[in-house]
Design goal:
The chain has helices at about 5-20, 25-30, 35-60, 65-85, 105, 110-115, 120-135, 135-160, 160-165, 170-190. By secondary structure, the protein is mostly helical. It has one domain. The protein is globular and about 55 Å long.
Length: about 190
Amino acid sequence: MSFGYIFLISYWTVLVAELIGDKSIYTVASLSLRFRPRVMLAGMFLAFGGKMLVAVLAGQALVQIPAHWTAILSTLIFFTSAILIWFKKPKPIPGPDAPKLKWSRAMLVPFAALFLTEWCDPGQISAVALTAQSHLPVATWLGGTLAMMTKGSLAITLGLKLRDRIPERRLRTLATASCCILGVISFHGVFVH
């Protein structure tokens, strides 16, 4: 598998998985009402990049497992992600309650709000599986981080209007289908190795 292919697959899979009602969309939209975009972007990059780094490192640990078992594990992870996405219940939109801080400390608010919440979500789980399967951690990290930054940028730009414009059911179906397709590809890998 090539670097570009894994980068694009990571970007698509993580983006679609993250857009299905992830709480951080609401966190970013709420915080963007109080903080300047550059503060939000800096905090988001540190938080999302850090979370993807943890996912990629977990995937790298799985590289030590024989390829046959990694393909089976990846298959299970993708299908589990599809099930989690399909059955995830929408969460209520939180109100904007971010404290007012000076710019020098303001970046800590979006960083902490995003980094310390929602671990092991479908986007991160997909990044773990893609890293283990592809053995290309940098491509997975770049694609996953860019996908999460895209999601955050959409939340900043569109705020809470994103949920009004794209029906959750459509996003849920698209994300579930993407994970199922990757699960089938991984399942095929069980027989190739």
